[in-house]
Design a protein that fits this description.
InterPro entries: Di-copper_centre_dom_sf (IPR008922), Tyrosinase/Hemocyanin (IPR050316), Tyrosinase_Cu-bd (IPR002227). It comes from Friedmanniomyces simplex. This protein is mainly alpha-helical. The chain has one domain: Di-copper center containing domain from catechol oxidase (di-copper center containing domain from catechol oxidase, Orthogonal Bundle). The chain has twelve helices and ten strands. A hairpin with an 8-residue loop joins β8 and β9. It is globular, with a radius of gyration of 21 Å. The structure holds copper (II) ion.
Length: 399
């Protein structure tokens, strides 16, 4: 009894010390002016606060691994990479597309006719678990781990020596088609899709939203990925022929349709900052990030950039076919990491929800002891081991 009380007091002391050092209260959007929210000042400010909290937490020995703030890999925004690193990044991504599958067995192969490459094993795994990793408790943790494995493959299978970059959509939100990511030169992420004129607006039943055509629509035509062949999907695209079965072989070009209508409505600094600061409960934060449970925000920053990329990126099931998926989810993971670290004691290990999309069909509340499935990508991972970017198999932070 005395021991418990003493421990409780000690913890209380440590927590209050942490609060004092890290800058007290979790920031709110009302702490900033609309201008500071719109121009990124607020977002950059809170991301620095999150890093300080993270550093403080780690420097006080709260980590159980040898991963430290100092030796963790530091992920950077794509456009801050030097040109040579960008090129080696896209070359390694292409390498996985040209490599035979590494996990699928000969016995399994007949059931997955569209899986022709190591990269396809990622696409197929995402297809297989789509309804178990979106609008679920493990949306953030599963995608965090999924892109971590891809980053490891770039390094271990394709000789990449850099880190996984992320794509800060807010920098491109107002004019996505002019982004340096998509210039189509050899140091870019490849071009937009070839422009297809005379298209009409599209109505999306699930969101009951009508959107205008984007600035591309056809095949990526220059730079990295201009000559890649996509094998799986699409399963859910409007205005197109979708495949009849999940893993059908459907060879075609990589398509994009950069669409600023989405990014200017869902991926501005105002969108990012209000989502980050106005949702203090994980239930709300994960839903609003994905555009669920909101009458006005039907896509969230997650859906906004998927549909903003368009083409292959907008197919719910097979979107990892476009390597852009992985730097998009790098930003989603950065976003989650900032949210966690803004109130690290309460948010590091908080989860909410089940393992079925929108809890349909109903399933059990997930726990941190549940195993997250990675199919052809890698062995399953314990949920609680990937809540911290310094824990379990992970050792990275964002800049
Ligand atoms: Cu996904």
């Amino acid at each position: 009894m005395y021991t418990t009380l003493a421990t409780g007091l000690l913890l209380a002391t440590l927590v209050s010390a942490q609060v004092g050092v890290s800058g007290a209260e979790t920031p709110k959007s009302s702490d900033y002016t609309p201008q500071q929210i719109a121009d990124g000042t607020a977002f950059n400010n809170v991301s620095r606060m999150a890093l300080e909290n993270m550093q403080y937490n780690l420097s006080h020995g709260n980590t159980t691994t040898n991963c430290t703030y100092g030796n963790a890999q530091q992920r950077q925004e794509w456009r801050t990479l030097d040109p040579a690193t960008r090129k080696s990044f896209t070359s390694a991504a292409t390498c996985l597309m040209n490599m035979p599958p590494t996990h699928m067995t000969a016995t399994e192969a007949p059931y997955y006719p569209g899986v022709k490459s190591r990269h396809d094993e990622y696409v197929a795994t995402h297809i297989n678990y789509t309804l178990n990793v979106h609008d679920t408790a493990d949306f953030f943790a599963w995608h965090r781990t999924f892109i971590h494995f891809w980053e490891q493959d770039l390094k271990n299978l394709c000789g990449y020596t850099g880190v996984l970059p992320y794509w800060n959509w807010a920098l491109d939100a107002e004019s996505l088609q002019d982004s340096p990511l998509f210039t189509g030169d050899e140091y870019s992420m490849g071009s937009n899709g070839k422009y297809i004129a005379n298209r009409t607006d599209t109505w999306l039943a699930a969101q009951d939203v009508t959107y205008p055509p984007g600035t591309g629509g056809g095949c990526v035509y220059s730079g990295p990925f201009a000559n890649v062949t996509v094998h799986l999907g699409p399963l859910d695209l409007p205005n197109t022929n979708n495949v009849n079965s999940s893993f059908q072989y459907n060879p075609r070009c990589l398509e994009r349709d950069l669409n600023p209508w989405f990014t200017e409505n869902y991926n501005t600094y105002t969108n990012l900052t209000t989502t980050l600061l106005d949702n203090i409960y994980i239930t709300d934060f994960q839903a609003i990030t994905q555009g669920y449970n909101s009458a006005t925000n039907k896509f969230g920053v997650h859906g906004g950039a998927h549909w903003g990329g368009g083409g292959s990126m907008s197919d719910f099931h097979s979107s990892p076919a476009d390597p852009l998926f992985f730097i998009h989810h790098g930003m989603i993971d950065r976003f989650f990491t900032i949210w966690q670290n803004l109130d690290i004691y309460r948010r590091q290990n908080v989860i909410s929800g089940t393992s079925t999309l929108g809890n349909s069909p109903p399933s059990a509340e997930m726990t941190l002891d549940d195993m997250l499935p990675f199919g052809f990508v890698a062995a399953d991972v314990r949920f609680g081991d990937v809540m911290d970017t310094f824990g379990g198999p992970l050792c990275y932070r964002y800049d």
